[in-house]
């Protein structure tokens, strides 16, 4: 339901919604981003997930937070993949599942997210959700820019 005339308006709503989110104007962000999130926009879904998870601009809603985070992650948004990995890692908004957490951290790490690389390295160090693999942990830490101490 988006013809060419609507595209500019949607882009403006997204930009305004993101600006409101960044300015911590969560009620405004919610009203601007919710329709876009429902329409499948990953950037809007990611921010709506954060607000729903933390009760910002709306009542906290774990199910909604998971639904939006998962949708944005499936769409390939690296930050959402990282966020979904943490949901699984911590058992917040989702059943704790270290293997699923590792899968999503891997996807985000493959997109170059440093935090995902280091978290995945930690999972390999501890053998959480993945095989314990100190060499893979070292490789990921180096890839993330950490040099070995010592």
From TrEMBL:
Please report a single Pfam family linked to this protein. Sel1
Kindly list the residue ranges recorded as spanning the membrane: none
Q: Identify the PANTHER family for this entry.
A: ERAD-ASSOCIATED E3 UBIQUITIN-PROTEIN LIGASE COMPONENT HRD3 (PTHR11102:SF160), SEL-1-LIKE PROTEIN (PTHR11102)
Q: Specify the protein name.
A: Sel1 repeat-containing protein
Q: Which organism is it from?
A: Marichromatium gracile (Chromatium gracile)
